Structure formats: structure tokens, C-alpha cells
Amino acid sequence: MSALNLAKRGVLVYQPLTRSSILMTSRVMSAQAPSTSSGQSEIAQRARAHRPLSPDLSIYQPQLTWYMSSFHRVTGAFLAAGLYAGAISYVAAPVVLGMSFDSASIVSAFAALSPAAKFSAKMALALPFTFHSYNGIRHLIWDTGRALTLKGVYTGGYAVLGATALTSAILAAI
User: Rounded distance, CA 119 to CA 117, Å?
Assistant: First the structure.
């Protein structure tokens, strides 16, 4: 049979789903908690209130990927908060506090710190910056479709941690 004959019979003609399809139906549901009038005991109701709504994370074994994902978000928030705090301080400190917030005053204040305090301050800035940068590069590599196997994910994670530790220590020692 030719395609034209099949089209005449309606075999090859596209027929969209009708509006009465099961995919298009909806129903209204109440968002209220079930009432206790059905005979539920007070103890059962209190027990239900303390149940977790989703699986409790404590039942799962912690993994490197969890920690890396969480730390990536935390470092991103820390870096953004630091950027905003620095910008607001630069603008508001002379007006509100009457303090000079120029580079000369920052350098003199930093020079007065002990070597351990200087290293700690540098490390507090270098660690989140380097981790967030290296982990961002790792995510860009994933976006290309590479290193998405379990071994690749863990190898990349350990590489990010190693590069972060090494680079942060070097930057803090400068």
C-alpha cells in the first residue's frame, strides 16, 4: 500500500489528543489536615505530627558528593556576602562611622596584625575562593559530558580538594 492510500484511510494522519483525555483531567483537593472525627486517637495524631516528611538523611551513608555540593553552596554564599559587605563598608564607613576606608588604612590595619592572624585572615579568604573556583571548573567539565562516571566524580572531587588545599596554602603564605 502506498503512503497516499494510507493517508486517505486516516492511518498516517495526525490526530491530537482530545480534551477529555485522562491527561487533561483535574480535581480539586482539600489542603486541610484530616479531622479526628473518624475515631483517630490523640496519640496517633501526635505521633504523625513528629514523623519526617521526607527520608531522614541520617539513614544514608555520608558521601563526598554531599559535602562538596554543600560546601560549594556555602562558599558561594560566603563570597557573595563578603563582596556585599565590602562594598557597603566602602560606601558607608566614611559617612556612618567617620572612618577612612581607603587602601592605605586597610594596609596599615593589616600590617599591625600578628603573623598568625595574617595567615588566618588570608586563609579565610583564599580557601572559599579557591574551592568555589575549582569546583566551578569541575562543574563546567561535567557540562561538557565528561567525568560523569562514579569514578570520574570522585576523582574530580579529590582533585578539587587537593588543589584547594595546595593553592589556599600558597596564597595565604604570600
Answer: 5
* Complete domains list, the chain, with CATH: 65-173 (1.20.1300.10)
- The string of pLDDT tens digits covering residues 104-118 is 988 999 999 999 999
pLDDT digits (tens, 9 = 90+) for 70-95: 999 999 999 999 999 999 988 998 88
Give the alpha-carbon dihedral of 26, 29, 31, 37, to 10 degrees.
-170
The residues of the chain scoring below 70 in pLDDT are 1-39, 52
CA max distance for the chain: 92
Amino acid of residue 2: S
The span from the CA of 66 to the CA of 114, in Å, is: 36
Q: Mention every residue, 6+ apart, whose C-beta is less than 8 A from residue 16.
A: none
Rounded distance between C-alpha atoms, residue 11 and residue 78, angstroms: 61
Looking at the whole model, is its pTM more than 0.70?
Answer: no
Sequence-distant (6+) residues with CB within 8 A of 94 are 100, 101
Which of 82, 90, 69 has its CA nearest to residue 129?
Answer: 82
